[in-house]
């Protein structure tokens, strides 16, 4: 199965069938993408012939003499069976069909999709789609996303692979990653739509075995084959984290889903158990998913569940500590020698326990002292750096520099929350340029560490040393 | 009790005791604030005399001949008892003590605070603090927040009153409101710190009776008097919504809190019941609190729990629908006539049920048609406007204009989620300029309506017609 997707990502030649001369139409955008980013050979097909993006438009695939490894079909649904048949005859074994108008629109479309399936079988083709965005890999220069760059910005190459049942989810998420920090996030993106052939299990297997993929993000509404998916996930989650959204959690959601990728909700409590058993970190909200990318994509795994919190606001420390409990984490107890140093270094009105509360009197240098102490303490597994920058003597630029210095070490998970207005937003932007994870609230920073730590607990339960799992921290 | 805080907010003269000539020191900032924003008479006191911000520095309160309604004490803790005694002798009845170094720092501070309490009693003073930010009201020109405007931006006048046990929480929240939409949010802000006299119940009573306050935000870690607070809340929550954070939910949080405002955690499940019984909308995260301000501060109350969702992405519709269930809301069933119109107007591949899925083929005008239909349908109580702007034919500026047109009506709660990258961020900024609530994910938009609807259910349970409760929609 894994070979199917390999055929696409390893293709040396790609053919765009339905290349369009109308600007911004899907067939125009995909042709543009291949002409401009694909390092292999690109062929464009349009029955009217002519030229597009400086390349010849073949009137049919049969005009092309060379062997074609893969094709993207961008023709309307009614012409799709013929185009697929032609591709089969031409010997193209790997086809992406982005067009919609199949099983997702009801009876008529279901019938059409069945006809397509028969052709696929006859010619032993691998098919992605229909009704999908297809594939995207910035490193390999493969991009069948039919939305122009002016609409959908492309992120750069990085550790995260994504596969999604919903193309719209995929597009929106890719768009978000394009403005998250350095934008260097994506390894492989797979949108398989109606999954007439290649499905969630194939996608999981491929990215699971892909050495450039350090973490896997999924969006599913249902399973084509739940059993094989869970089995595969159990293997892969011991090597790299899998996280994401399984929507259709509720009857209401299922009702909404029925009209779009023809998905049926199952008993969600069972799904929840199965996902957790397979080591998949399930999130239910978009915010959490973005937070996942930020920590799993930049931080090493912690070795345990002991958290140190450094703050300049007692209230923020309390909120963070509440979340420590909610996430089944512990507040670390500092080693005696570290504790003694903190007690002796800081004025008596600072709270030097955990959370370390530097109070509204804090200067940036206090953060350096506290953060370094926490970093050096073997009793601390992860560190939360909370700052409300409005306090009078805190220089935000010094705080940024100190945070950068600590973040560089990458020996322990280290997250920052900047809470407030202009200075908080400024600091966040500056730190995020270097992909240093910054959250807008104490709770979200702690929760991100909670997700990392949950994954470590899962690994340990299965006898895996978390130090052997490397994620995005090397990027 | 309510008269106590009235005395401060109605004060015609304010004295800053401990006015400092050192730039950016608390005593300097507070003096600056009063000189520049307070419409009444301001007196500045510093034992060295001289001049500050163009005003005379009195060497002591006794040098001032006029009657003084209220004072802000910004002297170090060790001089505070003397300053309070002097204020008492001078006949100042209303004192804000912003300085820290009292019960929050342990035994020595507890003793000091007791001495202060005796002086307060002797002179029958009303005291806010110590260890607090004190008061802020943009409309009344009262501002004892000792952080300079370069650090802590001030929001403008609006419907929201806030009281907080944690000064840091208050400062960070005020700072956030200063860059939320139009920044026109705050009516009264009360930070009472150690609550040696005026506490959470006094604050609640004051803002509850204040006609400019349309909604109340609270941050509490413990209660000085839980019973009277809940009793007061039960009355007020029938007139205007109260929402906020009761931190110290967990033992870990309580441990963190102990070192800061000397708060003790109680059994949180009981607290949860009591808050809910008193009609207080409890939120546990910062994000939710900001979302509360956005909906309660701009939208009318819904008359029921029936939600319409309009989307251009099936996946977003499914996630929103899942949240509809999570929040105990219902997907509205459109009236036959509205449904018929939708079916006839839109192409057959749009899903015209609820959610209305305009698909990736949507143009902005489709949104207008769908939104107007939902708005006009008596079966719809609230509307969620979801957009993933990357789709090829959607003009973001047209979408913004259509959203603005619908948002103006203010007859039904109407929330928008813009999900994606550059265009989503641009659209959010443009709409938020007019305080039109936009969320970054489908779930958060629905959840915001869930909170509004929960409040309506509470009102109805107590026989109150939600149409009689006006909030921030008139701003």
What does this protein look like?
Two copies of one chain form a homodimer. By secondary structure, chain A is α/β, with parallel strands linked by helices. Chain A folds into two domains: 2-284, Succinyl-CoA synthetase domains (Rossmann fold, 3-Layer(aba) Sandwich); 300-474, 3-Layer(aba) Sandwich (Rossmann fold), CATH 3.40.50.261. Chain A is 40% helix and 18% strand. The first copy, chain A, has 16 helices and 20 strands. Chain A has helices at 2-9, 26-37, 77-90, 107-122, 167-177, 200-209, 226-236, 251-258, 268-277, 286-296, 314-326, 336-345, 364-376, 396-407, 422-433, 442-461, and strands at 13-17, 41-45, 51-52, 55-58, 70-73, 94-97, 126-128, 134-137, 142-143, 156-164, 184-191, 215-220, 242-246, 280-282, 306-311, 330-331, 356-357, 382-387, 414-418, 438-439. A seven-stranded mixed β-sheet of chain A has the order 3-4-2-1-5-6-7, with helices on both faces. In chain A, strands 9-8-11-10-12-13-14 form a seven-stranded mixed β-sheet, with helices on both faces. In chain A, strands 15, 16, 17, 18, 19 and 20 form a six-stranded parallel β-sheet that branches. In chain A, β18 (382-387), α14 (396-407) and β19 (414-418) form a beta-alpha-beta unit. The mean pLDDT of chain A is 94. At the A-B interface, α5, α8, α11, β16 and α15 of A face α5, α8, α11, β16 and α15 of B.
Topology:
Two copies of one chain form a homodimer.
Chain A: H1 2-9, E1 13-17, H2 26-37, E2 41-45, E3 51-52, E4 55-58, E5 70-73, H3 77-90, E6 94-97, H4 107-122, E7 126-128, E8 134-137, E9 142-143, E10 156-164, H5 167-177, E11 184-191, H6 200-209, E12 215-220, H7 226-236, E13 242-246, H8 251-258, H9 268-277, E14 280-282, H10 286-296, E15 306-311, H11 314-326, E16 330-331, H12 336-345, E17 356-357, H13 364-376, E18 382-387, H14 396-407, E19 414-418, H15 422-433, E20 438-439, H16 442-461
Parallel strand pairs in A: 1-2, 1-5, 2-4, 5-6, 6-7, 10-11, 10-12, 12-13, 13-14, 15-16, 15-17, 15-18, 18-19, 19-20
Antiparallel strand pairs in A: 3-4, 8-9, 8-11
Helix pairs in contact in A: 1-6, 3-4, 6-7, 10-16, 11-16, 13-14, 14-15
């Amino acid at each position: 199965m894994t070979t199917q997707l390999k055929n696409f990502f390893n293709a040396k030649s790609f053919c765009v069938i339905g290349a369009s001369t109308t600007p911004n139409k899907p067939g125009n955008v995909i042709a543009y993408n291949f002409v401009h980013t694909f390092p292999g050979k690109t062929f464009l097909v349009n029955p009217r012939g002519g030229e597009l993006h400086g390349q010849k438009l073949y009137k049919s695939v049969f005009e092309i003499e060379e062997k074609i490894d893969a094709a993207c079909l961008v023709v309307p649904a009614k012409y799709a069976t013929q185009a697929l048949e032609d591709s089969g005859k031409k010997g193209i074994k790997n086809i992406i069909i982005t067009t919609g108008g199949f099983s997702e629109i009801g009876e008529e479309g279901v019938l059409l999709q069945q006809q397509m399936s028969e052709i696929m079988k006859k010619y032993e083709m691998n098919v992605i789609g229909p009704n999908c965005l297809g594939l995207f890999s910035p490193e390999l220069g493969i991009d069948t996303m039919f939305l122009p760059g002016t609409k959908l910005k492309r992120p750069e190459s990085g550790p995260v692979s994504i596969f999604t049942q919903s193309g719209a989810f995929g597009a929106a998420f890719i768009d978000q990653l394009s403005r998250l920090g350095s934008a260097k996030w994506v390894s492989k993106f797979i949108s398989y739509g109606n999954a007439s052939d290649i499905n969630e299990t194939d996608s999981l297997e491929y990215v699971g075995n892909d050495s450039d993929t350090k973490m896997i993000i999924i969006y599913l509404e249902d399973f084509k084959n739940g059993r094989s998916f869970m089995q595969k996930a159990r293997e892969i989650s011991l090597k790299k984290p899998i996280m994401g959204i399984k929507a259709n959690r509720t009857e209401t959601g299922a009702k909404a889903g029925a009209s779009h990728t023809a998905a049926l909700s199952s008993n969600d409590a069972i799904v929840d158990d199965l996902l957790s058993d397979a080591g998949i970190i399930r999130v239910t909200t978009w915010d959490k998913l973005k937070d996942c990318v930020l920590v799993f994509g930049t931080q090493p795994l912690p070795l345990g569940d002991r958290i140190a919190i450094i703050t300049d606001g007692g209230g923020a420390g309390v909120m963070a500590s509440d979340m420590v409990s909610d996430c089944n984490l512990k507040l670390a107890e500092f080693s005696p020698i570290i504790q003694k140093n903190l007690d002796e270094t800081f004025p008596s009105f600072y709270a030097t326990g955990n959370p370390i509360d530097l109070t509204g009197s804090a200067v940036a240098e206090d953060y350096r002292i506290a953060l370094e102490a926490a970093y050096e303490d073997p009793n601390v597994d992860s560190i939360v750096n909370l700052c409300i920058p409005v306090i009078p003597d805190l220089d935000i630029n010094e705080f940024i520099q100190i945070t950068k210095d600590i973040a560089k070490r990458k020996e322990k998970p280290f997250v920052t929350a900047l809470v407030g207005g202009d200075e908080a937003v400024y600091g966040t932007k500056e730190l995020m340029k270097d992909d240093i994870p910054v959250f807008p609230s104490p709770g979200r920073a702690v929760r991100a560490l909670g997700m990392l730590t949950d994954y470590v607990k899962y690994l340990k339960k299965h006898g895996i040393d978390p130090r052997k799992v490397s994620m995005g921290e090397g990027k």
